[in-house]
């Protein structure tokens, strides 16, 4: 097993992620351990953390090299994603602030209600991984008093995924958009008027 380099800052982490993705092959276990090696320091990532009082936000941190991207998702109290897939991509998630609940579901069968597979509370600095072979999931901040933030890596990046109705299993396509890029919120007056999709 490849040794995990010492990681003390977010810049260290982003540099190591870039090095890992020099190769076409994703070593899931090594990337998982690399993310676990970084201990969250809000002073290092807060410039990327943009919250919205109505919905969770997706904030691009690093566009990567075409094989991956890195973003920070910000979750106000009680905010969550719909149930969604990952468009045949790897998804890594590390908790930077607060805690999040991940609920996993089986893929739909004959338009029946989705069957819940697991329900996990992810505390600060915890890391989890999912891909489409492991099912669907929903992520939510079940605390109404404390905001949460999480760092996500998607490989390869995707611009569209499927979201699912829990009661019917019926899916629809959702565009993946960013609330901010590199710490800057775009001018919404001149941007596409569609709100960022839930995924």
Task: Please give a structural write-up.
Belongs to the cysteine dioxygenase family. This protein has helices at residues 10-20, 28-37, 42-45; strands at 57-62, 69-75, 83-84, 90-97, 100-105, 116-122, 127-130, 136-140, 148-155, 160-164, 171-175, 180-181. With 199 residues, the protein is mainly β. The protein has a domain at 48-175: Jelly Rolls (Sandwich). It has a 6-stranded mixed β-sheet with strand order 7-4-9-2-1-12, covered by helices on one side. The protein has a 3-stranded antiparallel β-sheet with strand order 3-10-11, with no helix packed on it. A 3-stranded antiparallel β-sheet has the order 6-5-8, with no helix packed on it. Residues 189-199 have low confidence and may be disordered.
Summarize the structure.
Keywords: Dioxygenase, Iron, Metal-binding, Oxidoreductase, Thioether bond. The chain is mainly beta.
For this structure, what is the CATH class of the domain at 48-175?
Answer: Mainly Beta
- Strand ordering within the main sheet: 7-4-9-2-1-12
Determine the CATH superfamily of the domain at 48-175.
Answer: Jelly Rolls
CATH topology of the domain at 48-175: Jelly Rolls
Largest sheet: 6 strands, mixed
Distance between the termini: 33 Å
The secondary structure category is mainly beta
Helix content: 10-25%
Spans with pLDDT under 50 lasting ≥5 residues? 189-199
**Rg calc:** 16 Å
- Compute the number of strand runs: 12
> Can you tell me the CATH architecture of the domain at 48-175?
Sandwich
- Give helix and strand order, one letter per element, not per position: HHHEEEEEEEEEEEE
Q: What fraction strand?
A: 25-35%
- Which overall shape is indicated by the principal axes computed on the Cα atoms? globular
Q: How many H/I helical runs?
A: 3
Mean pLDDT: 92
